[in-house]
Design brief:
Elements lengths: L5 H5 L2 H14 L5 E7 L14 E4 L5 H12 L5 E7 L2 E2 L6 H8 L6 E9 L5
Parallel strand pairs: 1-5
Antiparallel strand pairs: 1-2, 3-4, 3-5
Length: 123
């Protein structure tokens, strides 16, 4: 369920590091390069997001990022979304910059794993 998912396995370290560094250098102030991956143990395989690469402002709150994930996946209201960084459930009040400082990978990306759960019974 960690960041060893599809992006890491399909792109060499040098390529990932170069791409993350170019995103950080392109924007002033630097933005956070994020890879969003769906947890392998999900109950809803149909809820996928086409774009998994994001470049977020450092000041963006995780709750706002989570709202964008919900929109892109077209999640119904009875499905709760959980985001994890380095295997730890992330606090929605944190900014992407704070999470990046704590959870960035050696390649310069921050890998966010998302999962969902039905909050009002079966879907």
């Amino acid at each position: 369920m960690g960041p060893e998912g599809t992006f890491k396995s399909s792109h060499p370290l040098a390529t990932r590091a170069t791409k993350a560094a170019s995103y950080r250098a392109k924007y002033t102030p630097p933005r956070v390069p994020v890879i969003l991956e769906h947890a392998r143990s999900t109950h809803h395989p149909r809820l996928e997001i086409a774009n998994t690469e994001f470049v977020c402002p450092s000041s963006l709150r995780l709750s706002e990022f989570m709202l964008n994930v919900r929109r892109k996946a077209m999640l119904p209201a009875n499905i709760a979304v959980f985001l994890m960084v380095k295997g730890v459930l992330a606090t929605p009040a944190n900014t992407m910059g704070e999470l990046y400082e704590q959870g960035r990978d050696e390649d310069g990306w921050m890998y966010v794993v998302w999962t969902e759960e039905s909050t009002f019974g079966c879907v």
